[in-house]
Amino acid sequence: MVNTFGTIQFKEKPSIASTGVVVGPMEKDSPFAASFDEILPLENEKDESYEQANTRFIEKACSVTVQKGREQMENIDMFIGGDLINQLSPTNFAARKLAIPFLGVFSACASSMESVILGSLLIESGNAKSILAGASSHHPAVERQFRYPLEYGAQKPGTAQWTVTGAGFALLQNHAKNAPIITHATIGRVVDGGQQNPLHMGAAMAPAARDTIERHLKNTNSKISDYDVIMTGDLGKIGLSILKEMFQDEDSGVILQDAGAQFYGDDSFFNAGASGAGCSAAVFFSHIYKQLKNGVYKRVLLVATGALLSPLTFQQGETIPCIAHAIECRMEKRG
Amino acid sequence: MDQKQFDKIVERQTPKPVMFFSILKAFLIGGAICTIGQLITFFYIRFFPFTERTAANPTVATMIFIVMILTGTGLYKKISQVGGAGSAVPVTGFGNAVVSAAIEHKSEGYVLGVGGNIFKLAGSVIVFGVFSAFCVALIKTILVKMGVVSW
Fold first, then answer.
1. DSSP letters of A163-183?
2. Cβ neighbours of residue A107 under 8 Å, at least 6 residues apart?
3. DSSP secondary structure of A227-250
4. How far is Cα A253 from Cα A247, in angstroms, rounded to an integer?
5. A109-128 b/e with 16+ CB inside 10 Å = b?
6. B96, A151: Cβ pair inside 8 Å?
7. Which of A145, A187, A232, A314 is the most buried (most CB within 10 A)?
């Protein structure tokens, strides 16, 4: 075993050449809305199931990404993606239309970063030049699978989070000009904080996020204040305060942020904030990407967090194991 | 950080619902639903040949019809977010569970989708409702036979 402790260093500097984010109607009031590429007015079209709509969101985000990268779909070496629906059907079905070599990945809401890490490795190894990587989630489809029917009146507690309808994809290329590069990645360990409440995911995922961030900092000899921002995927407002308290670091107050906590602003309708594989993908590949590209952020750590539960396991009384994958992005000086 | 420390942090950071307000809201919403039901009962007794005993059936049917519309238009979910148990316990909660499951599974067809899943949530209400009715009836029958109470 090479002693990397799960942190990979990329020497070939795989870069994020372009990104594409397509979201649904609930997301138009998000503070990040201006950075999204497309906001569709409906969760699903007439005569279209929610799962089919999820597929369409993925296809759209992929074509936007490729278009913005001034590439042709047939020139893309590989498509890597994941979602939250059983057997990854939306992503699989989208891959049917994209018709390029495809790898489906699942690590729940951490799928976006898992895709990017795998894509970067393929670029690093020289086996690919352009890779489409990302993840998606679709609120009604996810509700139906993990919780109750959409119109069922179950009271949601203040700790609950709202699954984002959105797909976020990135075009990874080696040596793209004026693009943020991925310098390191840390592959997460499955961490179980002993939490059992599926409506309090922030608490379940915080230990996984902490483990990955801590290992990344240690393995790269960095500290929190070296980063402009360390953003977790979907811990939500409560999960983020748990994470901050676990760190007990004076710099963690400002630098540690969470995409899910900010996604819907302060609207109490969404309780603790946003969640879903599309949440981290949408924010990382829109707002954060643009800030990197414009040089506002120089060095960021993006940590997507995923709760690896299924409706079956929590009904059987199992605790919720979680995982967090991280990538470190840097923007080098233009020129 | 060990498990105990972590549990403490989680407990400290997790906001606790204010019991008093939750109960008050459940009482008001649940009470409002029952008042509407009572008004419908009066309506059936006043304008149709129903007695207090027989008016229950058309009342339940009417309430479920109203809930069907509220569920289809997405309003019942909003009422439930405020009402909690107040909107789940009355027959309207049962209606909502049935109708929402039917809407949800229409995409899989009428037989395997709607038919197979319509009682997905409400099924346990029926099972335990029938079972507890059986137990109560059994106890009462025994008590009547023993001469402790009369029908």
1. E--EEEEEEEEET-TT--EEE
2. A82, A114, A188, A306, A308, A323, A325
3. SSEEEESS-HHHHHHHHHHHH--T
4. 10
5. bbbbbbbbbbbbbbbbeeeb
6. yes
7. A232
Chain B residues lying within 8 Å of A195, measured CB to CB: 10
Is pLDDT of A335 > 60?
no
Do A117 and A103 contact (CB within 8 A), yes or no? no
Position A170 in a domain: yes
H helix count then E strand count, chain A: 11, 15
Residue A245's identity, in one-letter code, is E
Is A159 near chain B, with CB under 8 Å?
A: yes
Flag whether A67 is in a domain.
yes
Domain around A37:
7-174
The pair of three-digit structure tokens given for residue B5, joined into one six-digit string? 């420390």
Please name the residues between 74 and 133 in chain A that touch chain B, using a CB distance below 8 Å: none
Average pLDDT of chain A is 92
Please tell me what DSSP assigns to residue A155.
Answer: P
Predicted local confidence at residue A334, as pLDDT: 58
Q: Which amino acid is at A77?
A: D
- What are the tens digits of pLDDT across the range A39-72? 999 999 888 999 999 999 999 999 999 999 999 9
Structure tokens at B118: 């319509």
> How many CB atoms are located within 10 Å of the residue B48 CB?
10
Same domain assignment for residues A68 and A210: no
- Kind and range of the H or E element at B75? helix B75-83
> Phi/psi zone of residue A101: left (φ > 0), alpha (ψ -120 to 50 degrees), beta?
beta
How many Cα neighbours within 13 Å face the side chain of A161? Answer: 36
Q: Is residue A2 part of a domain?
A: no
Last residue of a domain, one of A133, A158, A174: A174
Query: Is the minimum CB–CB distance between A200 and chain B shorter than 8 Å?
Result: yes
